[in-house]
Amino acid sequence: MRRSFAGVWTLAALTLAGCGTAQSGPLGAGGASAGGVSAEPLCASKAPPYGEVPLTRATATADAPRPPGSPSPVPSTTGTAQDGVRITRLYAGAIDEDGACRPGSLTVEFEVTNPAPRDMTYTVVLDSTGYTGASRVVGPVGPGKTVRGRVAMGRSYGDIAGGTDVSIVSVRSIPSAEAPAPGGPCPATGVRVYADQGDAAMGLRMVGLHLENCGKEPYTLDGRPELEIIDADHKPVGGIQVLPSAQVAQLGGPPDVVRSLTLRPGERALSGIVWRNTVEAFGGAVNAPYLRVRAKAGAAPVMVTPELDLGTTGRLGVEAWRKEE
Question: Do the strands 315-318 and 241-244 form a parallel or antiparallel pair, or are they unpaired?
């Protein structure tokens, strides 16, 4: 939906058989920016495709086999550690799905440590000057455990990658038991619920909520999803009115009418949330990254990450479920 990407990294001098030889050089002019890490063009091995969106629940094996060669270490500086995630190594280059070397790419390794008392699943968003931003889902990560992850980024169109800076843009964590599953094996509930990337224009935000009956029995919906707004500290946010969408914005399209809806196995339903980020007073603006969604009363919760910036409006609109064609 709305992603901003910014950067941080140091210098590498590595040799990788079959993919070129790195040339070392001094930090500073023409190399990394202050507090950063830069790397010469090498090729990592078996790195996952950059920007890959996992279609199954993430597992603790998010990191691919270690690439050959010597990676560049990452100093402990601004932008390389955030909310339990720490960038540990950098490889220039990547291996694509066909096993071919992509020397114009960048591969980043990181560690995720979970301080929570329950299993958590993390989404880590990284960015690099001259490369496309990328995200990786890692989890479940057990209480007090550390899990490694790896993500590769391709060069941005028209940009020249050099003097590379890499940084952590955001870290989001949700209870693994509530992680959305947009694909892969059907959850035990028989339904999968997840959010799309949404849209934003002129201060109006919209995010779609999708439900698929992936089970073997009909599934009946009658009304709107039940929503609970959760802040960055994983605490419920009070004082927000959850209203029919038309009371927040007129969206057009099919009428937002509550009606009973029964989905046969394989059928889908669509709802959505809408809000404005208007700020009409100093202080009191609500920013909450998480939303706990129950498809109906008594349904198992699923936590999504719409990055709610509600301003001082105090209102969140939600549409009634309707069949998705």
Answer: parallel
Map residue 272 onto helix, strand or coil. Answer: strand
The string of pLDDT tens digits covering residues 88-140 is 888 777 665 555 666 667 788 899 999 999 999 999 999 887 778 888 899 89
Q: What is the DSSP string of 118-174?
A: S-EEEEEEEEETTB--EEEEEEEE-TT-EEEEEEEEPBPTTPPP-S--EEEEEEEEE
Q: Which of 122, 147, 177 is the last residue of a domain?
A: 177
| Residues in the chain with pLDDT values less than 70 | 1-78, 94-104, 157-164
Domain count, the chain: 2
Q: For residue 287, what is the domain's CATH number?
A: 2.60.40
Same domain, 265 and 316: yes
Last residue of a domain, one of 115, 148, 177: 177
- CA 137 vs CA 48, 50, 120, 279, 320: distances in Å: 12, 12, 11, 32, 30
d(CA 273, CA 1): 13
Instruction: Report the alpha-carbon distance of residue 165 to residue 37 in Å, rounded.
Output: 6
